[in-house]
Amino acid sequence: MADATAPYRIKGATGDWEVVIGLEVHAQVTSNAKLFSGAATAFGAEPNSQVSLIDAAMPGMLPVPNRECIRQAVRTGMAIDAEINRWSRFDRKNYFYADLPQGYQISQLYHPLVGEGSIEIEDGEAVKTIGVERIHVEQDAGKLMHDQHPTRSYVDLNRSGVALMEIVSRPDMRSPSEAGAYLRKLRAILRYVGSCDGNMEEGSMRADVNVSVRKPGDELGTRTETKNVNSVRFVMAAIEHEANRQVELLESGGTIVQETRLFNADTGTTRSMRSKEDAHDYRYFPDPDLLPLELDDAFLEECRASLPELPDAKRKRYEAAGVTPYNAGVLTAEVETARWFDALLEAGAAPVAASNWVTGELFGALNRVGKDITDSPVTPGQAAELLALVADGTLSGSLAKQVFEVMLETGDAPGKIVEERGLKQTSDTGAIEAVIAEVLAKNPAQLEQYRGGKVALFGFFVGQTMKAMGGKANPGVVNELLKKALG
Fold first, then answer.
1. How many CA atoms lie within 13 A of 334 on its CB side?
2. What is the top EC class of this enzyme, as a single word (predicted)?
3. Cβ of 167: how many Cβ atoms within 10 Å?
4. Distance between CA 33 and CA 163 in Å, rounded?
5. What's the CA gap between 406 and 350, in Å, rounded?
6. What does each C-alpha distance from 139 to 36, 85, 161, 256, 346 come to in angstroms?
7. Per-residue pLDDT for the chain (487 aa), expressed as one digit of tens each?
8. Which of 205, 214, 265, 270 is nearest to 241 (CA)?
9. SS (HEC) of the chain
10. 169: which residues sit within 8 A by CB, 6+ positions away?
11. What is the C-alpha to C-alpha distance for residues 30 and 137, in angstroms, rounded to an integer?
12. Which residues, at least 6 apart from 324, have a Cβ–Cβ distance to it below 8 Å?
């Protein structure tokens, strides 16, 4: 699909500037334990209640890789068609920080688990492929808490040792909206695969945002890295602010310093944190406590066989069944929605009618009551039954809306509601003809006008007949019989 929009540019005093963006996304691996210990990883636990002797770096403690963490990272690589490195190695990244008891972080610099892959994004009407340079696994650090005491900082080591996938993109994005589309797509893939819950508010997915600016066609400029941005909206805001800051600085005769910055969500601005370190500053070397990872065919085959249908494939399947591209995009954006819709199709619902009903009636009702699809009072089986009652003529569209409202309130099946409340649509021609005769008798002036050529009044007679029958008459039968009665 061709790009129908102009390239994103920052208008400077000296002309247009282009923004170059790369994202390093840290995604917490969904697993039963930490990367090198058996400690739990539940969010919200009491401080320091999920810390093993390994996480606390007690002397003599040796790390052992968690197979599930490695498996989830490999599955993620496969989901973006990346190269899986059968041989990879852990390195020590040496630095001191109060929440890092070891004095180093175990990561993968030189030989990552996953190599090059790509993610296709849609930004408006434009379709673009963003390169992924690598995915490596590493352990997270703990957390310093500065607001618990007036003069001291406390350390919580619950996150120390938690497994992270660092997913490093190429600098292929050229606008805040492209970066937003990339992050949303990556999050969807992770959630479909089940390798990360994607909960950015809880810190299980966060992005380091690399931004530089240049005149279009020039060499790459000096980049800054804004650390730990925890929402799609904030990533886009950080890019916009940082790009404009760099342009203003360059145009005023300044130079960009390669540095690490922090984003302030309240002000929408970034500030300098420290000068950017290079790899040699961390004195990386192979971790002597860990053997290299060697993956065999059976492990890789099991990983590939366990992958679910991914968002792009699911979307194409829906479109092939007649669902509009827009509806297919909405239905596949979140894995819970896609699973609910698949269950609806498995229960026998027709794809087109089902997609229109879910994106219209169901989403509208859930928004109204403040629930998401996982909390829906209506099950996919009940929704399929309701749609079947419409398809076979038992319910008209308006009656179906009434039944749906009762389903939301009571949780009852639609068939039961129809029987108990007498909401069945009637196609009884005798009953409908009798009502039509009554309507015509009560409206002689409109009847005369209609027969005098004012054919638009046909809708008036349809409405009066439906009203007299409480909306329960089959509209098709009403139309047919009215045409006969009106002559």
1. 10
2. ligase
3. 29
4. 8
5. 23
6. 8, 19, 5, 31, 41
7. 444 468 999 999 999 999 999 999 999 999 989 999 999 999 999 999 999 999 999 999 999 999 999 999 999 999 999 999 999 999 999 998 889 999 999 999 999 999 999 999 999 888 999 999 999 999 999 999 999 999 999 999 999 999 999 999 999 999 999 999 999 999 999 999 999 999 998 889 999 999 999 999 899 999 999 999 999 999 999 999 999 999 999 999 999 999 999 999 999 999 998 776 677 788 999 999 999 999 999 999 999 999 999 999 999 999 999 999 999 999 999 999 999 999 999 999 999 999 999 999 999 999 999 999 999 999 999 999 999 998 887 787 888 898 999 999 888 899 888 877 766 655 557 767 777 888 888 888 888 787 878 888 888 887 887 787 777 677 777 777 788 878 6
8. 270
9. CCCCCCCCCEEECCEEEEEEEEEEEEEECCCCCCCCCCCCCCCCCCCCCCCCCCCCCCCCCCCCCCHHHHHHHHHHHHHCCCCECCEECCEEEECCCCCCCCCEEEECCCCCCECCEEEEEEECCEEEEEEEEEEEEEECCCEEECCCCCCCCEEECCCCCCEEEEEEECCCECCHHHHHHHHHHHHHHHHHHCCCCCCCCCCCEEEEEEEEEECCCCCCCCCEEEEEECCHHHHHHHHHHHHHHHHHHHHCCCCCCCEEEEEECCCCEEEEEEECCCHHHHCCEECCCCCCEECCHHHHHHHHHCCCCCHHHHHHHHHHCCCCHHHHHHHHCCHHHHHHHHHHHHCCCCHHHHHHHHHHHHHHHHHHHCCCHHHCCCCHHHHHHHHHHHHCCCCCHHHHHHHHHHHHHHCCCHHHHHHHHCCCCECCHHHHHHHHHHHHHHCHHHHHHHHCCCHHHHHHHHHHHHHHCCCCECHHHHHHHHHHHHC
10. 22, 23, 24, 25, 119, 130, 131, 132, 133, 182
11. 13
12. 355
List the domain boundaries for the chain: 10-303, 309-421, 429-486
- 44/1 Cα distance (integer angstroms): 44
Cα–Cα distance between 111 and 136 in angstroms, integer? 8
111, amino acid identity? H
pTM of the model: 0.86
* CA nearest to 169, candidates 214, 198, 134: 134
